[in-house]
From TrEMBL:
It comes from Paenibacillus chitinolyticus. The keyword Oxidoreductase applies. Pfam families: COX15-CtaA. Residues 320-343 are annotated as: Disordered. It is a multi-pass membrane protein. GO terms for biological process: heme A biosynthetic process. Pathway: Porphyrin-containing compound metabolism. GO terms for cellular component: membrane. InterPro entries: COX15/CtaA_fam, COX15/CtaA_HemeA_synthase. Keywords: Cell membrane, Disulfide bond, Heme biosynthesis, Iron, Membrane, Metal-binding, Oxidoreductase, Transmembrane, Transmembrane helix. The chain crosses the membrane at residues 7-26, 58-78, 90-111, 117-139, 173-192, 223-244, 256-278, 284-312. This is COX15/CtaA family protein.
């Protein structure tokens, strides 16, 4: 049952990733009404007539339905056979955000929704993906979610330096702050897509040939997103530098911060390619999809670090409460009644 749960959690994570990417494709190709204002039917049919927009929208709905069934099966297995509380939290969170984003998607089809609400729809899908990623990681070496000491090449734990510091409260708070801020930046990026404001800034890194353009309309929306992304890069760089200086002996903290910074840099350059590809439909679609893939990777890793920080309050060398087991009580020696003496 353990192997089956692990495989289902992996398939669910991949499926949720596809939902996020396909949702971005629906937005990029303006296929949101490819099935008309009907749900769950598509233009009055279960299998719609062939048009590009209807196929894209219908495929997105079909994948969402299949992944929901996978998630339900995983949910049942985790609660039936799993002993880890965090795995139950993750699968329950994935189910909650999946249902919520599906309801929002259906309402957006039947009733017109504002761009702000549709951007939130993408954010909920991203949260559902992060939950399934964290669930799958519980079955891998990264799934301890307590701070782990780096290992040597032969697999043994390396000796801790004398000045090894436990995870401080300030660093834990900073990681969570960066995680929340990252979600805000992602939301603003989704708002750019849903308002079709990508053309507000021509060129990169300058916006319409100016350092600070006129902050109105689409230009103001895109420029605000760029400034938010620059600040996010500064936060990500600071996160990595602090982790390298103080917590390089903690494998998942140091490597996690490195992956966050790496995906953040890739995300910034992919955003630049999106701008450079304006006016070329195929290139614009391709670069936009790469941008969405990197969003998933970036947010997934910062979510991982946030969860590690929740379990990083225990000093190194101390036993974590979740892993603590009661030691068996020593058996009492049998009483020899013949030798028992009463005063």
């Amino acid at each position: 049952m353990y192997k089956l749960t692990k495989r289902l959690s992996f398939l669910t994570m991949i499926g949720m990733f596809l939902i996020v990417i396909m949702g971005a494709l629906v937005t990029k190709t303006d296929s949101g009404l490819g099935c008309g204002n009907e749900w769950p039917l598509c233009n009055g049919k279960f299998v719609p007539a062939y048009t590009i927009s209807s196929v894209i929208e219908y495929s997105h709905r079909a994948v969402t339905g299949l992944v929901s069934l996978l998630l339900l099966a995983t949910f049942i297995l985790v609660f039936k056979t799993g002993s880890r509380k965090d795995a139950k939290y993750f699968v329950a969170g994935a189910g909650f955000f999946t249902v919520l984003q599906a309801i929002m998607g259906a309402l957006a089809v039947v009733f017109s929704q504002s761009s702000a609400v549709m951007a939130l729809h993408f954010g909920l899908s991203l949260l559902a993906f992060a939950m399934t990623l964290l669930l799958w990681l519980t079955f891998t070496k990264w799934g301890d979610y307590t701070v782990s000491v780096a290992r040597t090449t032969d697999g043994r734990k390396s000796a801790l330096p004398k000045n090894a510091a436990p995870i401080g409260r300030g660093f834990r708070a900073f990681v969570w702050f960066v995680g929340v801020y990252c979600y805000i930046v992602v939301y603003v990026g989704a708002f750019v897509r849903h308002t079709e404001s990508s053309g507000g800034c021509i060129g990169w890194p300058l916006c319409n040939g100016q350092v600070v353009p006129e902050l109105t309309g689409a230009t103001g929306i895109v420029f605000f997103h760029r400034i938010a992304a620059v600040i996010m890069f500064i936060f990500g760089l600071a996160l990595f530098l602090i982790a390298r200086k103080k917590y390089s002996h903690l494998e998942n903290v140091y490597k996690g911060a490195g992956w966050v910074l790496g995906f953040l840099i890739a995300q910034i350059f992919s955003g630049a390619t999106v701008t450079w590809s304006l006016g070329h439909d195929t290139a614009f679609l391709f670069t936009g999809m790469i941008h969405a893939v990197l969003i998933c990777a970036l947010f997934g890793w910062i979510s991982y670090l946030c969860v590690v920080m929740l379990n990083a309050r225990v000093p190194l060398g101390a036993e974590h409460p979740r892993n603590k087991q009661e030691s068996p009580q020593p058996a009492k020696a049998p009483v020899n009644r013949k030798e028992a003496v009463t005063e």
